[in-house]
Amino acid sequence: MSINENDQLKLLVSGDRNVIQDLYLKEFPKIKSFVLNNNGTLSDAEDIFQKALLQLIARYRVKTFVVEGSFRAYFYSACRNLWRRELNKQKLIVTNDKVIERNKATEDMIMATLEQEKWELFQEKLAELSDNCKQLLQLFFKKVPYKKITEELGYNSDNVVRQRIFNCKSQLTKLIKKDNRYKNMKGL
Known about the structure:
Distance between the termini: 41 Å
CATH superfamily of the domain at 1-102: RNA polymerase sigma factor, region 2, helix turn helix motif
Number of helices: 9
Number of strands: 0
Helix content: over 70%
CATH class of the domain at 1-102: Mainly Alpha
Shape: globular
Structural class: mainly alpha
Radius of gyration: 19 Å
CATH topology of the domain at 1-102: Rna Polymerase Sigma Factor, Chain: A
Largest sheet: none
CATH architecture of the domain at 1-102: Orthogonal Bundle
């Protein structure tokens, strides 16, 4: 079944069984692999996949949005961000004999929505940079060594690459901070 990328989210929100089954069939193996390769279990992968589905649906119902680019890539990044946040939380857990109940699902939903909005703002502003800056920052974010970037892009030295990356990051930061959405997120 071939579904337009733009319609996939709408069909998911409406509860279309075929879209949900297709996501499980094609995307769950990728999510499972990511979680298992990052200190998780099969159960963790299932939970993350389920949470991402629910959060996307809930977020869409609260405020309709359009996924720019690939829906599958968007969904994968939502799952990846959820798992990374979960790992960070685990680092901060302090065990205690007392049981304290919290509404973790609501808190998770809010945090996931905020994180996804931050990611979308970042991606949007990154796209506004020059092609050279985008290329440099993508290599930098992938942790490619400066020496390799120098060779790959034909710069004169590592120092030139460092300075150029610094300037590109500064431009990106300015673009993000000028956006009203950043100001609203900052207040949260």
